[in-house]
Write a structure and sequence with these properties.
two-stranded parallel ribbon, mainly alpha, about 65% helix, binds zinc ion
Length: about 260
C-alpha cells in the first residue's frame, strides 16, 4: 500500500466514523436538548445545561479524535493485518464463533477501558491526558469523542488489541464500533433513559448507565467502567451514592420539576 493509498483509506474512514458520530450525537442532541427538552426534563441528570462553549470544545476535540481513530483503523486493516488474527471468510470459523467474537470484544474493551481509565486518573498523567475529557463536568452527546489526542490514541488502541487477540472478522469489529458509538452517546447523554430501578435489577445492576458515567464526569472519582459495573464493583470503585443518584434521576419527578428551570 502506497502512502497515497493509505491517505485515501484514512479519508474514507474519517468520513465514515465522523458521519456516525455526527448522526448519533447530533440526532440525540437535537431530540433531547431541543425537541423533547420539556417532557424529558424529569429525566435530566444534572439540573443545569452545558454552555455553548462546552459543546464547541467537545466538538473540536472529537474531530481530532476521529482522525486518530481512522488512522488506527486503517493501520490495523492494512499494513498491520498480516501480523494480526483478522480473518476474511466468515465460514472459516462459522456464525456461532462470529457472534462470540462480539461478546469477546464487549468484555475485552470493558476491561481495557476500566484499567486504562484508572491509569489516566493517576495524578502524574491526568492533566496531560485525561483532563480534556473531564472539562465537561456536565457532559452532552458531543462529549462522546472529546479526548486529548494522547487519550485518543489510548482509546483507539482497542482496535489493534482486538485484532491481535483472537481471530476476528472485520465486519464484526465494524458492527461492534457501531454499538460503541450508540452506548457512548447514551453514557454522555445528560438524561437517564433506562427504566426506573434499572440500577437494582439483577441485570441492570451490572450495566453502566448514563447516571453512572455522568457522576464520573461530575466528581472525577469512582465509576471508571465502560459498559459494565463489573470492574467497579469488584474493585470497590462504585460511587456509594450511585443508587441514590439513579433514583433521583428517574423517580424524583416532583422535586425536579420545581427546581429545573431551563
Ligand atoms: Zn466520559
Ligand atoms: Zn475519567
Amino acid at each position: 500500500m502506497t502512502l497515497s493509498d493509505f491517505f485515501g483509506h484514512w479519508q474514507t474512514a474519517y468520513w465514515k466514523i465522523g458521519l456516525r458520530y455526527f448522526v448519533m450525537a447530533g440526532l440525540t442532541f437535537v431530540a433531547f436538548y431541543y425537541v423533547f427538552k420539556a417532557p424529558m426534563l424529569k429525566r435530566k441528570i444534572q439540573a443545569k445545561f452545558p454552555k455553548n462553549k462546552d459543546y464547541f470544545r467537545d466538538l473540536f476535540y472529537s474531530l481530532i479524535s476521529i482522525g486518530i481513530f481512522a488512522f488506527m483503523f486503517v493501520s490495523t486493516f492494512s499494513f498491520l493485518k498480516p501480523y494480526t488474527n483478522l480473518y476474511d471468510d466468515v465460514s472459516e470459523y462459522g456464525v456461532v464463533y462470529y457472534c462470540f467474537t462480539i461478546v469477546w470484544m464487549f468484555f475485552l474493551h470493558d476491561a481495557y477501558f476500566y484499567w486504562s481509565h484508572r491509569l489516566m486518573h493517576h495524578p502524574r498523567v491526568f492533566k496531560y491526558v485525561h483532563l480534556v475529557h473531564h472539562k465537561s463536568t456536565n457532559p452532552s452527546p458531543w462529549t462522546a469523542y472529546a479526548f486529548h489526542p494522547a487519550e485518543g490514541v489510548i482509546e483507539a488502541l482497542i482496535i489493534p488489541i482486538i485484532a491481535f487477540s483472537i481471530p476476528t472478522h472485520k465486519s464484526a469489529i465494524i458492527g461492534y464500533t457501531l454499538f460503541q458509538i450508540i452506548y457512548n452517546v447514551y453514557g454522555h447523554l445528560g438524561f437517564e433513559i433506562m427504566p426506573k430501578k434499572f440500577n437494582t435489577h439483577w441485570f441492570g445492576k451490572w450495566m453502566n448507565t448514563s447516571v453512572g458515567h455522568n457522576m464520573h464526569h461530575k466528581y472525577f472519582v469512582h465509576n471508571y467502567g465502560l459498559w459494565t459495573t463489573i470492574w467497579d464493583r469488584a474493585f470497590g470503585t462504585m460511587n456509594p451514592k450511585y443508587d441514590e443518584a439513579y433514583t433521583y434521576a428517574t423517580e424524583a419527578q416532583k422535586i425536579k420539576e420545581s427546581t429545573l428551570t431551563q
